[in-house]
Specification:
Layout: E1 2-6, E2 20-24, H1 32-48, E3 51-58, H2 61-65, H3 78-87, E4 92-97, H4 100-103, H5 107-115, E5 120-126, E6 130-131, E7 137-138, H6 142-146, E8 151-155, E9 159-160, E10 163-164, H7 167-176, H8 179-186, E11 190-197, H9 202-206, E12 211-215, E13 225-233, E14 236-245, E15 258-263, E16 274-284, H10 292-312
Parallel strand pairs: 1-4, 2-3, 2-5, 3-4, 5-8
Antiparallel strand pairs: 6-7, 9-10, 11-12, 11-16, 12-15, 13-14, 13-16, 14-15
Helix pairs in contact: 7-8
């Protein structure tokens, strides 16, 4: 998959670009609804003997459009988004920088520059996709703006349990620790990646050595607590348990949650290596214990629960 980072106005030359079928949207999470849009574009591209593409945006529009500029965390940070799109068979990825210039572009200007200008012959988007200044362009106005230069497919609402699958709904599930429902909406386990760094080595002293993971600052983490997880390391998968929190028993003044994983039946040194952590089930809330003995007892109970969980849900 070739990746192009663009901003308005882009400098790509129309005549040098292949004819493509593109899926377009922000696609945070690349959940089941997003996957239907993208897979439709990939399939249509094959039928037309064209390349498939995805147009997405970065950063989130709220960073630019809200008066108090903020840092947004993503269900799928850009790096993970790219990996998922590769697996979905996308040939080209256009990442458009969302800035004030783009936000001010008229719907017709957006279509002329980023659809016609990229030699796109067919567009696939969700029914609620909007474009141009204040989102005035949508899948009802796109025919007028296309002016027969390209065709399009509108994907209708994708639901689970009679409710629309959306990034907002997934964010709410993660906030509440409803990881299994979030995974159902995503169509895969939530993944958080990072590099193993030196910690306090307290877990080793307790008999449960943990890998402290320096997570991507752009990654949206679920609710604090203890989770059943699978760890992907050098293409191997391991079962384990994760603690996400401020460790109130020993470090009550910690402001940001820390992700620590105990990999079952694994004791090798992982410092400096990358781990991918799949979240599978929420086990319990983070707790403060009177001392190490109580904590060790609870961790042992957690391990039994998680091993049983994976024995039933492998």
């Amino acid at each position: 998959m070739r990746t192009f980072e663009l901003e308005y106005p882009h400098a790509l030359v129309f005549n040098e670009l292949p004819e493509t079928v593109t899926a377009i949207g922000f696609f945070d999470g690349i959940h089941c609804g997003h996957q239907r849009v993208i897979q439709t574009a990939v399939s249509e591209a094959k039928n037309r003997n064209m390349e498939s593409a995805v147009i997405t945006f970065f950063p989130h529009p709220s960073v630019v459009l809200k008066k108090d500029a903020q840092h947004v965390k993503y269900i799928t940070p850009l790096r993970e988004k790219k990996e998922i799109l590769k697996r979905l068979g996308v040939d080209r990825l256009y990442i458009i920088k969302f800035n004030k210039a783009l936000a001010s572009l008229s719907p017709q200007g957006f279509i002329d520059h980023f659809i016609k200008g990229l030699n796109i012959k067919h567009v696939v988007a969700g029914f609620d996709f909007s474009y141009g200044h204040k989102g005035k362009g949508n899948m009802e106005t796109i025919k007028e703006h296309a002016a027969d230069a390209f065709s399009y497919t509108t994907i209708s609402k994708v639901e689970l349990d009679n409710e629309k699958i959306s990034s907002t709904r997934i964010r709410e599930c993660l906030k509440k620790g409803q990881i299994e429902k979030a995974n159902e909406l995503l169509g895969r386990p939530l993944i958080v990646d990072g590099i193993v760094i030196k910690g306090e080595q307290r877990g080793k002293a307790l008999g449960y050595p943990t890998a402290n993971i320096d997570t991507n600052r752009d990654a949206l983490l679920p609710k604090t607590g203890v989770y059943a997880v699978k760890i992907i390391y050098k293409n191997e998968r391991y079962e384990g348990m994760a603690s996400l929190g401020v460790n109130p028993t020993f470090t009550p003044d910690l402001l940001e949650p820390v992700l620590e994983v105990n990999i079952f039946d694994y004791n090798n040194d992982l410092y400096g290596d990358e781990l991918l952590v799949e979240f599978h089930a929420f086990i319990r809330e983070e707790q403060k214990f009177a001392g190490a003995a109580q904590l060790i007892k609870k961790i042992a109970e957690d391990e039994v629960k998680i091993r049983n969980y994976f024995a039933k849900n492998c």
